[in-house]
Every structure is written in structure tokens, then in C-alpha cells.
Amino acid sequence: MAVQSFISSEPNLVELFRQIQEWQDSGQRVALATIVEASGSAPRPLGSHLAICESGLFAGSLSGGCIEGAVIAEAMTVIDTGLPKLLDYSISDGQSWAVGLSCGGKLHVWLEPLQ
Fold first, then answer.
1. CB < 8 Å & 24+ apart, contacts of 15-22
2. Residue 27 near residue 54 (C-beta atoms within 8 A)
3. Strands 106-114 and 49-53
4. pTM score, two decimals?
5. Residues 55-69: pLDDT tens digits?
């Protein structure tokens, strides 16, 4: 069941991974952000993805726009260092207000470099 709900939550997953492959084929390094925990009024479901290449282009969505900028900024560090990060955005976190997650939801985002 978890696999089915994961796949149905990302109808454009094939296109997302095609874009990642295109970036990698052109020599770009890429990071992938995935919602690994979501609660409350989270804008996107568990398993949603955002791919970011080192030139700053991105594909996919984690929140419909409210945290993408912050995740993209963190992705540049992950791409440079090669070290993954777990990001936390919630209503009780002052950073969440700064990035616009005022919907009351809570998101944990796993951000990893793709080799």
C-alpha cells in the first residue's frame, strides 16, 4: 500500500527522473529533496520530490512554492559538500515563517546529492 500511495502522489515522477538524467548527462551535479514526514496542513503529500541542479534549475515541488527557495539554497550546500541533510519546516520553527510555511503544516525533507 505505501508504494501505491507514494506513486500516486507523484504523477510526474517519470518526467522528474528524466530531467535529472538530462542534467547529469550534461555534466551537472544534482540534489534530490523528498518529503519524508508530513503532518498538519502540509501543502504536498509524503513522498513529493524536488530535484535541483547545480546551476539552480529545479523540477518538481515540495510545497507549491512556500519552502522551495529555502530548499534550493540548502541544495547548493549539499551538492558542494556531497553530504545529505534532514531539513525541518514547521509552524513552531521561526525559519518556517521566514520561508512562508504559514499553513500550519510540518515537513521533514531529506535532501541528498545524487551520484
1. 15/59, 16/49, 16/51, 16/59, 16/60, 19/51, 19/59, 20/51, 20/59, 20/114
2. no
3. unpaired
4. 0.79
5. 999 999 887 667 889
